[in-house]
Specification:
The structure is a single chain. By secondary structure, this protein is an alpha/beta fold. It has 2 domains: about 50-145 and about 270-335, Bordetella uptake gene, domain 1 (D-Maltodextrin-Binding Protein, domain 2); about 145-240, Periplasmic binding protein-like II (D-Maltodextrin-Binding Protein, domain 2, 3-Layer(aba) Sandwich). The protein has 11 helices and 10 strands. It has helices at about 1-40, 65-80, 95-100, 115-120, 160-170, 180-195, 205-215, 225-235, 280-295, 300-305, 315-335, and strands spanning about 50-55, 85-90, 110-115, 135-150, 175, 200, 220-225, 235-240, 270-275, 310-315. The termini are far apart. Residues about 1-15 and about 30-50 have low confidence and may be disordered.
Length: about 350
């Protein structure tokens, strides 16, 4: 009996010791995790470790914004061990995708791929965001030269030829455009500068507009270089001028609109990236570094060159200034020309 009591006592004591050991280990693990979380938080590392970043593209797959988002997303993913998800959210001229990002948590994990429509759409239709206050601009990534072109069978060989004909027969020349796009606003600005009257016919995109020009159903088009480059190379279309500030490297003999007599005229199509307003400065700085570095990668630059995209890397306050400038300029044209959403 005494032996059994001793055995029972030893067993209970052993169990208590084992429990105490396990509790001690558990407390140690909890303490270690807590200290690690505090350290990560204090150094901003918690939000910067491997994570998923979603880039919302407000147009369907295959468009210029989509191509650029996937190209840079892949480069950033490989360089920094991140998971980059491209989410296409088309609709309402891009408004649906933009509104979705404006409502996202401002933690640096949801970004918007943007174009000039970002500052044009809110001036044509009701939106639930303010392009100048609802977002934190990261960078203007690339610039895409805009080209004014005619059919190669056209008698017009210079911008002056085209506008002289427009003045001689007001309202007789027909220009293809995309309603509410920067190309629509750009041709309105050029018409005003040249004091000419041309009929504008809206098309749903560059492809159908160029097709109409190839069929000689319209006189001219004004679109991004990638949308007309194949037809220019084949000789089916003729470029009269580029709206860029400088000449295009691949078309060195093509004058700018400014060189053609319209000083200070400049319209560029571009793509950029932004985050929701109130995204922490630390996250913005890191994203800026990632995107600018991606633009400099040789393999990325080679692919951009094929697309006709020119790396810009205008970031932070300078990009914000550009957005405010274009918002004002394009808004003035929209009001004065009484351009309204269809």
């Amino acid at each position: 009996m005494i032996a059994m009591l001793r055995i029972g006592s030893i067993t209970k004591r052993t169990l208590r010791e084992k429990v105490d050991v396990h509790l001690g280990l558990l407390r140690s693990v909890i303490f270690t995790v807590a200290v690690t979380l505090i350290a990560l938080s204090s150094h901003g590392a918690w939000s910067q470790t491997t994570r998923t970043i979603k880039i919302v593209v407000p147009v369907p797959p295959g468009g210029g914004e989509d191509i650029l988002a996937r190209l840079l997303g892949d480069q950033i993913s490989r360089a920094h061990g991140l998971r980059i998800v491209i989410e296409n959210r088309p609709g309402a001229g891009g408004v649906i995708g933009v509104e979705a990002v404006s409502r996202a948590v401002p933690d640096g994990n949801t970004l918007l791929m943007m174009s000039p429509g970002f500052v044009i759409n809110p001036q044509l239709r009701k939106v639930n965001y303010d392009p100048l206050t609802s977002f934190e601009p990261i960078c203007q990534l690339v610039s895409v030269p805009a080209i004014l072109a005619v059919n190669s069978a056209s008698p017009y060989r210079t911008l002056a030829d085209l506008f002289d004909a427009a003045r001689a027969k007001p309202g007789d020349l027909v220009h293809a455009t995309t309603f509410g796009s920067v190309f629509h606003i750009g041709i309105e600005m050029l018409k005003r500068a040249a004091k000419v009257d041309m009929i504008l016919v809206p098309y749903p995109g560059a492809a159908p507009a160029v097709t109409a020009l190839l069929g000689q159903h319209v006189t001219s088009v004004f679109y991004g270089y990638p949308g007309v480059v194949d037809q220019l190379k084949s000789g089916r279309l003729r470029a009269l001028a580029t709206a860029s500030r400088t000449r295009i490297a691949s078309l060195p003999d093509l004058p700018t609109v400014a060189e053609s007599g319209y000083k200070d005229y400049e319209v560029d199509f571009w793509f950029g990236v932004a985050a929701p307003a109130k995204t922490p400065n630390e996250a913005v700085s890191q994203l800026t570094g990632w995107f600018t570095a991606a633009l400099q990668a040789p393999e990325v630059r080679a692919k951009l060159d094929v697309q006709g995209y020119y790396p810009v890397g205008l970031c932070g306050a300078e990009f914000r200034t550009l957005l405010r400038k274009q918002y004002g300029e394009y808004g003035r044209v929209i009001r004065e020309e009484n351009i309204k959403a269809e």
